[in-house]
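Need tokens for this chain, all 549 residues.
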Amino acid sequence: MNQLKIKTFEKTYTKINLQSLCVFGLIISPLFSHYIYAYFFGFFDFQQLSIYIFNSLFSLLIFAPVFLVFGFRLIVWLSFSIIFLFVSSLETAHFFIYGVGLNRATFFSIFQTNFFEANEYVSDFAFKTLKTSPFILMNFLLMYVFYIYKEKITYLKFNPYFYIVMLFMLPVFFFNSESVLAGDNIIFKAFSAYAEYQNEIKLLKNDISKSDESDIKVSLLKEYQGPEVHVVIIGESTNRKHMALYGYQRKTTPHLSSKKGDLYVYKNVLSTSAETLGSLRHVLTFKDHPLSGKPFLEGNIIQYIKKAGYDTYWISNQVPLGLSENPVTLIAKSSDHVIFVNNNVSHDSGSSYDEKVIGPLKNILRADNGKKFVFIHLLGSHTSYKNRYPDNFSVFQDKMNGVDEKQSDIINQYDNSVLYNDYIINEIISETQKANKYSFIMYFSDHGENVYDCNPYLGHNPWQTCPEMLEVPYIMWFSDKYKKNNSEKMLSFDLYLDRKYFLSKTINSIYDLLNFNYAHYEDHKSIFSDDFEEDDFKVINKIFKQNIY
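Here are the structure tokens for all 549 residues:
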């Protein structure tokens, strides 16, 4: 009799545990959808199979305590169903667009975005997410099956040891951030990315608060006696391979090409990141490389320029606000004068053209006295490309060879945005030239853009990086007064155009042009220096773990 009871007990618990695992399998099933999608569309890497399994196991560990506390009530089930459906759909769409799952760079972009950018992004890629609908429907079906049969599953009778093991393992994985389980888990990545993002914001705020302290010291090796206006133009998502100035077959840069004799066009400059934040946080501070280990606390570019006696300006056509504070905006606010000309912060997704920056620049150029330094942050060729230029710049409309009609339309839109960007850069040069002051203009883009150039994906993503996402234009213009007063310095500039250079070291190049002398200046990091040490682009392989060069 006792033996019969033991066998019945064992059979019951075997059944319950198996059913319990089935329930959890249904609960976490959306997490598998993007892996199934990846397999069918050729993105699946069997070497990462263990990571995918660990990812799901870690999710199981996270959610088990929730259901232990709240039970399998309808409201709990519905809440988790909605969350999972949203996350899995986002992950699947991300796979389709970029060929990789959600990652740190994605979450950083989400924290910085605003409704204007998000609305453009969703409308731009909506047609792609439609192709993932079978997998989204599969998630709904699995949840529906669970709901139908939930009353028939004795899911509340878990073996107590099951919970004990889970609750013991959970903190171990949470505190071990290098764990394979934690490293590839969507939820863990989101929270850890947010913590890292907020830490960088904190460091930058500390930087700004130190801007008037005496530990930032700058002297001038050579000072010009007269009014100065220098301009640094920061572009957005510009692939230099789509610029005629760099050999593109379409005439996308008629103005700059006509001025080529007055320009210094550098041919081998790379961004260290295929995202705005990853690029500009290095360009604008002394943290000049992702692996440098340097904190932000050595100061940002604007603080040193101010200390040298320049009146500083930041003119931007980027939207200053996001879901969280924007690090670039925080650095911009170090300036004496901050002008944001883009008012698309509401639910209106209308366009804000870069020509808006010309008016404020003219006002600055009209003033005859003092030393001024101006940063201009453009929207450039940021998606959606069709919203970056007015109708009269819709020049390229013909069908491109080797791509389908939709891709051809997008390439046309991108090239039109480059054409309009050429007009804006030319206007800035022309207005500065008219002012006839001691000036230089530097133009570069924060990163490049893949417009079906190197893989079937569109846009930029640090985890699916290709050369077109990193190769940026780097162009210099100098006024006659600057050339005359720095003739010896500029003798060799024509010989430096092929130098391999990381955009992140630009802070040293700008200070070299300004003839600064300060504690952190490193002459070998200026592209204009005779003592320049050329960068080894093989380093990119270590950062992105891909053979890009």
